[in-house]
Amino acid sequence: MGRAFRSRKENKAVNRRQWLKVAGAAGAFTLRPIGRLLAASGAPPASDHKPSVQVDLKRLMLRHTWTTTMSSNAYRDTVNVRYTYDAITGFGEGAPIIRYSEFPDQAKLAIDAIRDKIAAGDPWQFDAFLAGIRKLLGEHEHAAMAAVDIAVMDWIGKALNIPLYKYFGLDAADAPITTFSIGIDTPEITKQKTAEAAAYPVLKVKVGLNTDEETIAAVRSVTKKPLRVDANEGWTDKEEAIRKINWLETQGVEFIEQPMPAHMFEEIKYVRGKVHLPIIADEACTSAAMIPQLKNAYDGINVKLDKAGGITEAYRWIKMARALDLKVMLGCMVSSSCSVTAAAHLSPLVDYADLDGNLLIANDPFAGVTVEKGKLILPQGPGLGLRVLG
């Protein structure tokens, strides 16, 4: 009996020593420098070689003139970044938003001015690295920040040899349906655009002018599909907004984006109490710090990489909105498959997607995310999974 007791006691001591040995090794592993962690995981170690940073502008030609309450354009210029380190190149793009006084030439100049700082950063420490770049660019260069952020995160995914959606712990099968956008136009052109969007099960229609009824009637003469509507701050009278939103509900509209100017917070709050359709904040949502207040007047937010300043900040917006029980829409500007694909990698996190900016242009320099019967199909390659088309 005594020998058996001692044997059990000795076994426990041995097991405890083994456990402490394993735990100590695990603790040491968690404290290893990032280079050793990456080496252990099979990822390439950090290098002393400095990256190269190239910046240019790309002119994207629209298939149709793109008209909203704010502007009408036949093309859009975006700022593009190529970030190369250890023979791996990450691609990034930002579409400056005139509404926020951001312009392509200025975005390029802003990045050019800090190229040396970008080149001096450690991409494996991208959290602090990108925070420093954001501070250098300042509060008025969100699209420039997006271009840098997307390029660095593309690089990270390629260096780890995984698609970005896997880096964020997401399942590509959970990517939602995207809408296809119908810009403001004459009734005949609106009918043509609607017919051309036959492959998309849900449409997004731009309104906000005194022709709203005619626009919706033109769309409805072609299709009975569900609609989502964006007024782009077009209605300035709260009673008009109430009347139009309640009428839109009878037309098969699922929700309305930014019905009134962003600064008319109390008016939108009043309107929300008089309508049934959910109201999504777009122009009113320009920083993560604003999201808690927006909950008092809106049912959800529209997250755009060009507003947030890239993938990492857009992810933070989404998580904050979720914590506040707000609906989340993931949108985009007119841009190439670079920016749209970057956003698409976060799309399994959201309720609604409006990621069609690349579908509106005729000269996309990249191939990335695709659409099948409206559903976003994420690329399987590492990083963004882009192919350069020349």
Quick summary of this structure?
By secondary structure, this protein is an alpha/beta fold. 40% of the residues lie in helices and 20% in strands. The N and C termini lie far apart (81 Å).
Tags for this model:
390 residues, alpha/beta, Enolase-like, domain 1, TIM Barrel, 2 domains, 8-stranded parallel β-sheet, 3-stranded antiparallel β-sheet, 15 helices, 15 strands, 40% helix, globular, disordered N terminus
Q: Could you state the CATH homologous superfamily of the largest domain?
A: Enolase-like C-terminal domain
Spatial order of the strands forming the largest sheet? 4-5-6-7-8-9-10-11
SSE topology string: HHEEEHHHHHEHEHEHEHEHEHHEHEEEEE
Name the overall outline. globular
Explain what this protein looks like in three dimensions.
40% of the residues lie in helices and 20% in strands. It is of the alpha/beta class. The chain has 2 domains: 52-161, Enolase-like, N-terminal domain (Enolase-like, domain 1, 2-Layer Sandwich); 166-388, Alpha-Beta Barrel (TIM Barrel), CATH 3.20.20. The strands form 4 sheets. It has an 8-stranded parallel β-sheet. A hairpin with a 2-residue loop joins strand 2 (72-85) and strand 3. The longest helix is centred in the N-terminal third of the chain and has 29 residues, at 2-30. The model is unreliable at 1-47 (pLDDT under 50).
